[in-house]
Design goal:
This protein is α+β, with helices and mostly antiparallel strands and 378 residues long. The chain has one domain: DD-peptidase/beta-lactamase superfamily (Beta-lactamase, 3-Layer(aba) Sandwich). Helices cover 29% and strands 17% of the residues. The protein contains ten helices and twelve strands. An eight-stranded antiparallel β-sheet has the order 2-1-12-11-10-9-8-7, with helices on both faces. It has a two-stranded antiparallel sheet with strand order 3-6. β4 and β5 form a beta hairpin. α1 crosses α10. The protein is globular, with a radius of gyration of 20 Å. The chain starts with 13 loop residues before the first helix and ends with a helix. This is Beta-lactamase family protein. It comes from Massilia rubra. InterPro entries: Beta-lactam-related, Beta-lactam/transpept-like, Diverse_Enzym_Activities. Pfam families: Beta-lactamase. Keywords: Signal.
Length: 378
């Protein structure tokens, strides 16, 4: 779930922001030589450099789990291992999409059917995705045009999040626009079809079959002992969001071991892989970026990569894999600096130019810039 703290920056003088941006650009140009280091040492160097208190990475080689390593860049160092649980943020979406495609394969859901077919009582939009009220029964007739596929490839026309009445960004099916709201709409349809709450559905459809014993779409006593607390970009504790209600867009709690199992299952399923990349939606032609069924797609000559990032308060995550070789990785962190590790890890595990890291989709987190350069950690 994207942070809503950005308006706080308006109180800062423009010169301060410009200096911070300049310093950030200078700082980001210095990267350690990681080529000669093993994965464990690589993670330790990166975690210390970027004040990441907890990071765990599962590496996939040729569609098999090759290793799981972890590190801490804070003192005292918290215990981090393969079963440490993190908020996966938007990495929740690919796992949910996998379950949706399984449901479609079972004939219980049609990808090109209007979602409202499965919600005859209508769709109630929550002004705050973490709270049941206030809410509204959506009456916009454009809602009837949204299909399962449109939600999965982010062409539903819905905004990322709406803190008041739901308003469309575009007509359904006409343009790519990243939307968490669309995922809540699809979640309600899946719950209606399955007769189960999201967390129960995901446990039966994905977690139990894949042996993901440290995963849940809501906080629970089962995962609480292994849950890593979130932290700011400087390693200081960050009071995170209490995700007590399941949300398909951002509430997955999981471990590197578990998400690695999911990635192995995905990369080993030729049918679903083909569905993910069929008829992609263009996102940025200059960078070779498209969007498939809930995965970003980067194309580079004869290579194709699937990827996604996650951004929750106190947590950052990233996943990437080569469709051709079956090599990839998932990175989970309990730090708002966590995405700083994504590009160097990608270069080490799936070497290539990877222009996706130039994309504005990933954005510039000004709160992190201020914390990392001027030590103003809000």
């Amino acid at each position: 779930m994207q942070s809503k703290r950005m308006p706080m920056l308006s109180a800062l003088p423009l010169p301060v922001l410009l200096i911070a941006l300049c310093l950030s650009g200078c700082a980001s140009s210095h990267r350690p030589d990681l080529a000669s280091l093993n994965m464990r040492d690589t993670l330790q160097v990166l975690a210390e450099q970027h004040h990441v208190c907890g990071v765990a990475v599962a590496v996939i080689r040729q569609r098999q789990l090759a290793s799981i390593d972890s590190a801490s860049g804070c003192t005292p160092a918290p215990k981090v291992d393969a079963n440490s649980v993190f908020q996966a943020a938007s990495l929740s979406k690919p796992v949910f999409a996998y379950a949706v495609l399984k449901l479609a394969a079972q004939g219980k859901l049609e990808l090109d059917a209007p979602l409202m077919r499965y919600l005859p009582q209508g769709y109630r939009h929550q002004f705050d995705p973490l709270k049941a009220q206030p809410s509204e029964l959506v009456t916009d007739p454009r809602l009837a045009a949204i299909t399962v596929r449109m939600v999965l490839n982010h062409t539903s026309g819905l905004p990322n999040w709406a803190s008041g009445p739901l308003r469309f960004e575009a007509a359904p099916g006409t343009a790519w626009h990243y939307s968490g709201e669309g995922y809540v709409l699809l979640q309600r349809a899946v719950e209606a079809v399955s007769g189960q709450r999201l967390d129960q559905f995901m446990r039966a459809q994905v977690f139990t079959p894949l042996g993901m014993t440290h995963s849940d779409y809501a906080w629970s006593e089962r995962i609480a002992p292994n849950l890593m607390p979130g932290s700011k970009a400087n390693g200081a504790p960050r009071a995170g969001l209490a995700l007590n209600e399941p949300n398909a867009a951002f509430s997955l709690h999981t471990s590197a071991a578990d998400y690695g199992k999911f990635l192995v299952a995905l990369l080993g399923d030729d049918e679903i892989l083909a569905q993910l990349s069929a008829s992609p939606v263009p996102v940025d032609a200059g960078l070779g970026l498209d969007w498939g069924l809930q995965w970003g797609i980067e194309r580079d000559r004869d290579a194709s990569y699937i990827w996604h990032w996650g951004n929750n308060t106190g947590y950052r995550a990233f996943v990437m894999a080569s469709v051709r070789t079956g090599d990839g990785f998932v990175m989970l962190t309990n730090s708002e600096n966590g995405l700083e590790l994504a590009q160097p890890l990608a270069q080490k595990i799936v070497p290539g130019e990877h222009k996706l890291f130039q994309s504005p989709i990933l954005g510039t987190d000004m709160l992190n810039v201020l914390c990392n350069t001027l030590h103003i950690c809000l």
